[in-house]
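Bug report

Summary: structure tokens for Assimilatory nitrate reductase electron transfer subunit differ between web form and batch submission.
Environment: batch mode, default settings.
Steps: 1) Submit the sequence below via batch. 2) Compare with the web form result.

Sequence submitted:
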Amino acid sequence: MTREAVTREAEEPGTVPRGIVVVGNGMAGSRLVSEIRARDPRVPLTVFGAEARRPYNRVLLSNVLAGAARADQIGLVDPAWYETSGVDARLGVEVVRVDREARTVHGSDGSAVPYGTLVIATGSSSFVPPIPGTEGGLPAGAVAFRTLDDCEAIIGAAEGARRAVVIGGGLLGVEAARGLAGRGLEVTVAHLAGHLMDRQLDAGAGKVLARTLGRLGVRARLEAVVTGIRTAPDRDGAARVNGVELAAPGGGAEAAEAAEVLDADLVVLACGVRPEVGLARAAGLEVDRGIVVDETLRSVSDPSVRAIGECSQYGGTVYGLVAPAWEQAAVLADLLTGADALARFTGAREITRLKAAGVDLVAMGETHHGDDDPDVEIIRFADASRGTYKKVAIREGRVIGGILLGETGTAGTLTQLYDRAAPPPADRLSLFFTGVGGARPADSPVRMPDAATVCHCNNVSKGQILECWEKGARTAEEVAARTRASTGCGGCQDTVAGIVDWLAEQDHDGPGQVRVGVGAAPGG
């Protein structure tokens, strides 16, 4: 629905105003609301958020868990903004039903709000496998790690704990484990697969990651089948966790008797997430793994319903990272306000970043190819003693994937080549090491073209940062406020600050004199 159509429908005499209703106020929904308001200050706009608190950056939850950030430092929207921007924000109100025929959503508070366009941005929820000991819900001392409330519950439980077990060694599990180790707990990660972060890393990188984590106080138990969470009565008689049971290799009755128990005062479940599609399914929308949408983010079942973020599915893919969700939000805001009627979401390249104390990791694209694949050129460097593993996969003269673990100075170069499906340099070592062959470091601001992407979460280029500087932004914080650079995963904070510092040094040359260089962009 274009801005003109929404306004026309809202202004018809004798009718109830029907604007845009957004269900979900997480990272996708809140971004969409702000993007819409940036384009159109008048369109009727309502957002429902099941969590009573203001939206926050879920990517930075691990920083809160580790004590590197406070909960109030990861907020995305100032609560006062809703009122000043004319947004009807219903925080703490869950939408329990969608009446597509009447085009109305019904809230848990008994409210009913009509819509012209409905946007579902319900995200995903933690997957808790049917582990014995959790039949009646998670016992005290066990928490599924997904929300800020979960994070605060884990921090509270960690205060009186000595040993923690994290069930699940994916990205979130590794971040949780590192955060808990930083709080002084003995931490074990129990992971079903043969190496950590098996969705993003190959076995070689997983092995190096496990060794690095081991030096940081995190032990990894791989190919670990969790068969139960053990509990014991606390002083009040309530069941509280005291261990995690692992099956012995081989299975069978003898293996069951030989099961190992990992002592634990705290158990964190990071077993993955599932798209939150119950509301959409109950409304009769087509749902596969996510709500099936086309390139305009429109439900294939109903032209008045759109879906973005982790609950949506485009081209058979459910995107689980923040950058694609924010790209979808920008595209949809363009379409709904009429700012760009030709805007389309045609898919996104997912780049995974892990930033934990003592661990630096970037992974992208196809990372599991081996040396025996005749169609793929593999370049690899490993130094497990230093926690370093680097790999690039090239097919038909194009970078199709890569891993940088431990030392990520060339992450920008590699990310840009992958993002643009560009050919790699003739000197392959320059993909791994800065300054190879006498070249200047790839992330030097002077060598970056204006088009180079600095912040991949928000798609902010060096040129946009320069433009921001020329309009008066003089600090990294001011640049972030105007462009959102560095407000996603935070991986580009140092780069943004470096560009700002460099601009300050070059300022005497005057506007436009700093636009030089042909290098590659750093990651963000």
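Above is the batch result. After comparison, the two runs are identical; trailing whitespace caused the diff. Residues 1-16, 437-443, 510-524 have pLDDT under 50 and may be disordered. The first strand starts at residue 19 and ends at 23.
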